[in-house]
Design brief:
It contains 9 helices and 17 strands. The protein has helices at residues 98-102, 104-114, 130-138, 154-158, 187-199, 222-230, 241-247, 284-295, 306-312, and strands at 55-56, 59-60, 64-65, 70-71, 78-79, 87-93, 119-125, 146-149, 167-171, 176-182, 218-220, 234-237, 249-250, 254-255, 274-277, 300-303, 317-318. It folds into 2 domains: 55-199, Glutaredoxin (3-Layer(aba) Sandwich); 218-327, Oxidized Rhodanese, domain 1 (3-Layer(aba) Sandwich), CATH 3.40.250.
Amino acid sequence: MLARLGSFSSLATLALLVIAGCGGDTTTNNDSHLLEEPGASGIGAESADSSGTALSEDGIAEASPAHDFTLPGIEGDFTLSDHEGEVVVLNFWATWNEPSVQGMDALNEVHSELGADGISVVGVSEDEGGLETVQDWAENHGIAYTLLADASKSVAQQFGDIEFLPTTIIIDRQGLIREQHTGILTHDELLDLLGPILIEEDEPLSALPQNSAGDGPQSLSPLDVHILVGEGAMLVDIRPHGTVKETGTALDAEHHPFHALIPQDLPANFGVPVIFLGDGGGDQPMRAAERAMDWGYASVYVVEGGLTAWLAAGLPVAPLTPLPSDAQPLVRARTVIG
């Protein structure tokens, strides 16, 4: 997982937290954003195995077993059962379908961020030209995740006779279908769909005090913070730029001044612990932590005693090193909770 998202050595995957009540039904049939193949009565086609998972009008039944399949791909044959133990993001698409192509950037981003943590993004093309069409198309597009061809649309039939493209199905590590979404998904919407699956796998860190409902942010000793940052927590120095430039900051801390702090400065993964560092006086770290909780982060803390206590504990510091201009993080749209 990217350093920005955090990678905990004591966890298989840090959950993407979904705050209860912020979501809703992700299945949609908005015809203004979805296209059927010209001249076709439906995207799904008859299959030798017509006993595939049936979809209700509201989507796939919760925790239905995913039927196994094998399809040819650009990098060779792909068999779903070979990927048991992974979370599979199965996206049905076609080169002629504009919404499908528009949604690929978000799929590519999730593949890049979470592929190392057992999240497999797989695109199943419904093009009549089969693998040759997909290969020709892929040569001119930078798609990093797995692309397969299903000219007969047999797999679409197995998953409930999928009618509209794009349609995305989430399969958990036990091979159960957990989510279905028809239409374009943004990066954050994909994380929201994955969140309930991944959060089930998590156990709290032994060194991390748990925030109780209704409680404000807690303080952590510098030593505890140092350990947690080494395991993937995000440490944010919210002191003014001039102060940080003069004194340096805690090793591995990111610098985002309090006055300019925005949601995009924090991890896309709402389950990553976020810890705020001040100078040892004032209430800005606590105010920053409260702001992060309002945005939806579940594990938010402040460094007790700030940088003064950090230095007194003999913990490592580093000078402020600005990112090169070509490595500045992109500010992207995201849903802010609260």
